[in-house]
Write a structure and sequence with these properties.
This is VCBS repeat-containing protein. The two termini are 14 Å apart. This protein is mostly beta strands. It has one domain. 12% of the residues lie in helices and 46% in strands. The strands form 2 sheets. Strands 6-7-8-9-13-12-11-10 form an 8-stranded mixed β-sheet, covered by helices on one side. The protein has a 5-stranded antiparallel β-sheet with strand order 1-2-3-4-5, with no helix packed on it. It contains 2 helices and 13 strands. It is globular, with a radius of gyration of 17 Å.
C-alpha cells in the first residue's frame, strides 16, 4: 500500500510539472498569475495573485548571480519590496497558503549555474496579511540519509498542501549526466518555528 501511495504521489508530481512546462506561467490552484512580455527576453517577470494580495517577482537572470526582487501589493502594513541576491537564475514562482491561515506565501525557485544545477528556495509568508517574513528551508545536509546521493538537479513544486522537492539520486561511480539511483522526493509542511516560519520535512520517498 505504501509503494502504491508513493507511486501515485510521483505520478501526480510529474503530471503537475508537465502541465507547468506546457504553459507560459505556472498554474496555481485557486489563484492566477500574470507573466510580463519582458520575461520572453530571458529574464523572469511574473505577478502572482492571491485574493487581494499579489507579488511581483522579477530577476534579470543574467550571469551566475542575480538580484531577485519581490514586490508585494495589498498587504495591510508594509508593502516595501524585498531584494535578495541569489545563486543562479529564477526558474519559477508560486503562491500558496500551505498553513491554511488565510494569508498567502510566495515561493521562488532558483537553479545555480554549472553542471550541478543545484536548486534553492526563497520564500516569504504574509503574516496575517500585514507584512512579510522569511520562510526557512533546512539544508538537505542536515539529514544525512536524505542527502545521500544528492548532486543537484532539484525540482520544486506545490502539491496540495505541501512543498515537494524532487531530485535524481547518484551512486558513487555515476557521471553527472547519468544518475542510476532513482529519484528521491521530500515533502515539507510549513510550521511556525522559534524564530519564524520553517518548512519541515514530513516524508521522504525513493522511486
Amino acid at each position: 500500500m505504501q509503494r502504491f501511495a508513493a507511486a501515485l504521489s510521483l505520478c501526480l508530481f510529474s503530471t503537475l510539472l508537465t502541465a507547468n512546462q506546457q504553459t507560459s506561467a505556472p498554474q496555481v490552484s485557486a489563484q492566477h498569475t500574470h507573466q510580463s512580455p519582458a520575461a520572453k527576453t530571458g529574464g523572469f517577470d511574473q505577478t502572482l495573485f492571491y485574493q487581494s494580495i499579489n507579488f511581483h517577482v522579477t530577476s534579470a537572470n543574467v550571469g551566475s548571480l542575480n538580484q531577485l526582487r519581490i514586490e508585494p501589493k495589498g498587504l495591510k502594513g508594509d508593502n516595501k519590496p524585498i531584494e535578495k541576491e541569489i545563486d543562479g537564475t529564477v526558474t519559477g514562482a508560486e503562491v500558496a497558503d500551505l498553513n491554511a491561515d488565510g494569508s498567502p506565501e510566495v515561493y521562488v525557485y532558483a537553479t545555480s549555474a554549472g553542471s550541478g544545477s543545484y536548486g534553492s528556495l526563497v520564500a516569504y509568508a504574509a503574516n496575517k496579511g500585514k507584512s512579510l517574513s522569511e520562510i526557512h528551508l533546512p539544508s538537505l545536509q542536515d539529514d544525512a540519509k536524505a542527502a545521500k546521493g544528492y548532486r543537484g538537479h532539484d525540482e520544486f513544486k506545490i502539491v496540495e498542501n505541501s512543498l515537494v522537492r524532487r531530485f535524481p539520486v547518484y551512486r558513487d561511480k555515476d557521471t553527472n549526466a547519468q544518475p542510476t539511483g532513482g529519484t528521491r522526493q521530500i515533502k515539507y509542511k510549513l510550521k511556525a518555528g522559534e524564530a519564524g516560519w520553517v518548512l519541515k520535512p514530513t516524508r521522504t520517498d525513493n522511486f
